[in-house]
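User: Need the bound-state model for molybdenum atom:
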Amino acid sequence: MGAVLGLNIPYARNMPAGLIPAALADTPEGFRIPGKHEGLVVLNDRPLNAETPAYLLNDDITPNDRLFVRNNGFPPSNVDASTWTLDIGGESVRTAKRFTLEELKSRFPKQTLQLQLECGGNGRSEYRPRARGNQWSTGAVGCPEWTGIRLRDVLEECGVQDSAVYIGYQGADRHASGDPTKSAISRGVPMAKALEDETLLAFSINGGEIPALHGAPLRLVCAGWPGSTSGKWLTRIDIRDRVHDGTKMTGKAYRVPCTPVAPGEAVDESEMCIIESMPVKSLITSIRSGTVHPVNEPIRVGGHAWAGDLEVRQVELSGDFGQTWSTCELREPPNRLAWQRFEGELTFPVEGYYEIWARATDQAGRMQPMLVPGWNPKGYLNNACHRVAVRVA
Ligand SMILES: Nc1nc2c(c(=O)[nH]1)N[C@H]1C(S)=C(S)[C@@H](COP(=O)(O)O)O[C@H]1N2
Ligand SMILES: [Mo]
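Assistant: Bound-state model below.
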């Protein structure tokens, strides 16, 4: 960072990962986040939140430098993997235990899976009336390859009592107010999701160390559910005998109205339900919106589709504002809970302005809506079709 600024930052080693020096954050052209590809869009710098434009997400396996960042508080500084520990406790654990990172790595079978991560608020910027929070467009999603161990193996080693209902995580990050008695976020999932084959305690991403911003040296990955369930900088997991009641589990956080409401309607907290599996969605990544393309030459349209806990059954494309649709080639996921590649082709016989729309359908037959679906107070779960503009000349 000092090199970018052209000056020495004396206390740089104490600076929390993800804190952008004010001098950089103030430059009108924005700046490049250390460790990130050029072009990521910073939505907030205290704490850091940044999304990835769709055209930068074309890789089947999202590289580290293209993965969005969502921090609720300030990441821990001076993380030491050699002394890191994970505590397992809670009302419904048979024997509470503490594991070092080394024990976790050596004592349980390793798993490598490609797993998608999407923020529950991805797409929020399209809701009217506007919902407060990070104004994500489409880029709070990615699908890297994670290596770790099954959470189930560790929980079973400690013993899960019949009274177990939920797990709740704690991380080493700090609340944005600086108040040490408050946690930044502490969420969880029901036991059934916690015990799934694909729910990982990950210590590696894309074959290497997890970057500081993404939860080094240990994080949860609960793919297909809101990204907020995938706790970073993981220090503790409790097996709870009730629905976990940590920070951002209660009130309106990561909840939507249990029954649909009118846009802007006031909703009582007692009428808000916890978001579980994310809805079906797709993203066109092979073409940058605004591309100029020749008349009568087929244009290849590729991207990814995903559907929370489910698989995607079909992806269609339209180049005429939804009047006609053509079915794409759709690949199987490399493993459960990874996004799926789609490829199609469109041809435009007349010059002019076009939009390419993509629409995915999940295995239960649910299809992406064309318009922004179900307004909700916090602006979660917008899975409206992705649209890319093309000028044919
Ligand atoms: N400890 C901790 N874990 C966390 C968060 C956080 O702020 N602190 N953010 C959550 C949210 S809301 C999302 S969407 C994902 C984002 O993961 P990423 O920043 O690695 O992309 O991490 C989740 N895990
Ligand atoms: Mo999130």
